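Researcher: Please translate sequence to structure tokens.
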Amino acid sequence: MPPSPRALAHLFHPDHADDYVASMRLGVDHLADALTRVSGPATGVGPAQAAKPVLDVDLDDPLEDPAAALEEMGRLWLDDTVWFHEPTYAAHLNCPVVIPALLAEVFVSGVNASLDTFDQSVAGTFVERHLVAWTAGRIGWATGSQDESGAGAVPDGIFTSGGSQSNLQALHLARDRALAAGAAPADLRVLASVDAHFSVQKSARLLGLPAEAVVAVGVDARRRLDPARLADALDAVVAEGRTAMAVVATAGTTDFGAIDPLEQVADLTERHGCWLHVDAAYGGGLLVSPTQRGRLDGIERADSVTVDFHKTWFQPVSSSAVLVRDARTLGHVAWHADYLNPRDPGGAASPHQVDKSLQTTRRFDALKLWLTLRVMGPEVIGEYVDTVTDLAREVGEHLAADRRVELAAVPELSTVVFRYRPPGLGEDAADRLVPLVRSALYERGLGMVAATTLEGRRWLKLTLLNPMATTEDLLGVVDHCVALAEELLGEVAA
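Model: Translation complete:
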């Protein structure tokens, strides 16, 4: 028996346009109402309290009413969710998002284009390609540059689900280039700083490389990849008869925002003939900074680059891209299926995006960045980036002068790593306070901060990606951390 007209009315269709508009307005009103009632980044609900009402729902018994479903959703999730727009949210690399990108989401989800083939996206294919070319131009890759054979190298890339996938694809290309040159899989090595993103190790494992494949290289006093140590590590790989398949330089480490010395790293990779990947998932927003673009000098010498638009470009997740200096290297991930992208289409070749992606079905996430650029322009995004980096610098200066706290390092991008440690408090006690302070801050709804370790010691971390936050907002969070630490000192001493 076919579905009833009432059941079919749930489908996005011209006949149901009025139902669509009514539901969307109901949802927007519900979200806007919730937004006006937000008084902090989170209410402090714990895992057990959050889980029970969700698990109690009988998914076989529908409510059959959008308003009732939204009311239930509010109770289960929205009322206690984390709000990244709040100035006292300073935990992870989650940014407040811009309204033009949210406008794009209406069309991304409603039309539901898939960017794998031209006949599922039409001009969406070219929107994504134009954005990739534009970003490549910001990196400094000029169309028609010459490679060693004298042929023109044209940059290219693909949107991905996030930095981890972008890094995986870049290392996939580096691995296959090395294998094509005759290297043995067991001999392949990837060199990255000790502070590089964990996805480097994870990618190596997924690519079938041995456990020792990732060589962790030491950092300098600013937590940047040390070129001298990298040179020694590369020489050691050669001396062992191994192959350096890639060096990963980071433009914005997760904890310290450190930007590796890209020019010096590029000199070394060129000398050794190995692939250079720059993980600019965090620091990629500097590509549109009106004042700080120079901090990425040397990125144009990379073979591949990761950029997360859902970090310092203020886009909703997911929105990332992996870009390559030479489009031909993307051939290492190409695969053809007769039902999707046949090798011989029997006519003019269609511009399929699946030919260069690890994914098949992909959302039209590029539209979010497109509408953002068309409404706001890149310079406004760059001003946001400058604002949060200035904020981190100012907060760091205040904490450096505060005898109640210890600053781990001078802020490099938009993170501030610190902990409560007044004169006389030992490191062990300071370590034990960190998780207690962080938990109490969240549970009491006073703010949210992250935590990390440095050389075995525990630290709190402010991650600043909100251009509307002020120095006073963040110093208030630090004051709460100090007050909680002083309150919890007895538990640490016990």
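Researcher: Any highlights?
Model: Residues 407 and 418 are 4 Å apart (CA to CA).
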